[in-house]
Write a structure and sequence with these properties.
single chain; mainly alpha; Methane Monooxygenase Hydroxylase, Chain G, domain 1; 2 domains; 5 helices; Keratinocyte associated protein 3; Beta-casein-like; transmembrane
Length: about 230
């Protein structure tokens, strides 16, 4: 299937797989962001009224990106089961577009945070310590009595969490873009518009509604016949 391709028979199943992948990736990214905040950033997010903006923004966007990915995944699964529902098309378009933007912002923020941390040797990670003797390399820090956390592993732990989170944010963005393209195809707008696909879905929806109406009328007639007997 190409970038703008959507198979009417297999498209729903493929969209469901994308939704499940978004939910899984979103949960993992959310957990990573929570671990980073709980073990590291809560000690340095505002030490002595000095806000480390690059760390706070990267962590907040990572958590928000995870939550939005879960939401977009749920909407994608619902849309895959109801391809003719117009409201779900717009919902998928809105959530996937928002999640793609937030995921891209998160990825850029994590790249910035990693670059700053590596360039200064991780000394910003020790800004929550009370000691004035901050080493040049955070990986060599040994100030357990003056810091509210273990400084011997903070540099390696932070980077080991940020790199997977950056990769997962990029994956979230790619999956969200795919969901956005599917929503545009279903609505028949944009560069990937296919009016034929939209018309076929509308025809199938009309036939389904007509079939339900006939079944309802049959049920009512049978009910009246039973009451007369």
């Amino acid at each position: 299937m190409g970038i703008c391709g959507f198979d009417k028979l297999k498209g729903g199943r493929q969209l469901m797989r994308v939704g499940i992948a978004l939910i899984c990736v979103g949960h993992i990214n959310f957990i990573l962001g929570a671990i980073v905040h709980g073990t590291i950033l809560r000690h340095i997010s505002k030490p002595q009224d000095k806000v480390t903006a690059e760390y706070s923004v990267a962590n907040i966007t990572s958590v928000i990106s995870g939550l939005l990915s879960i939401t977009a995944g749920i909407v994608a699964i619902l849309t895959s089961r109801n391809l003719a529902r117009e409201r779900l098309h717009w919902g998928l378009m809105a959530t996937s577009l928002l999640n793609a933007l937030v995921s891209l912002t998160c990825c850029v923020g994590l790249v910035l945070a990693i670059s700053i941390t590596v360039s200064n040797g991780g000394t910003n990670l020790l800004s929550g310590c009370n000691s004035t003797l901050v080493p040049a390399q955070a990986s060599r820090a040994a100030l357990p009595n003056d810091c509210p956390f273990d400084t011997t592993r903070i540099y390696d732990t932070t980077l080991s969490m940020w790199f997977p989170s950056m990769f997962l944010s990029a994956v979230e963005g790619a999956l969200s873009v795919r969901c956005l393209l599917v929503a545009l195809i279903l609505r028949g707008v944009g560069p990937c518009s296919h009016p034929y696909t939209r018309e076929r879905l509308e025809e199938e929806n009309a036939e389904r509604e007509k079939r339900r109406s006939c079944e309802l009328q049959t049920y009512r007639l049978l009910s009246k016949a039973d009451t007369r007997v």
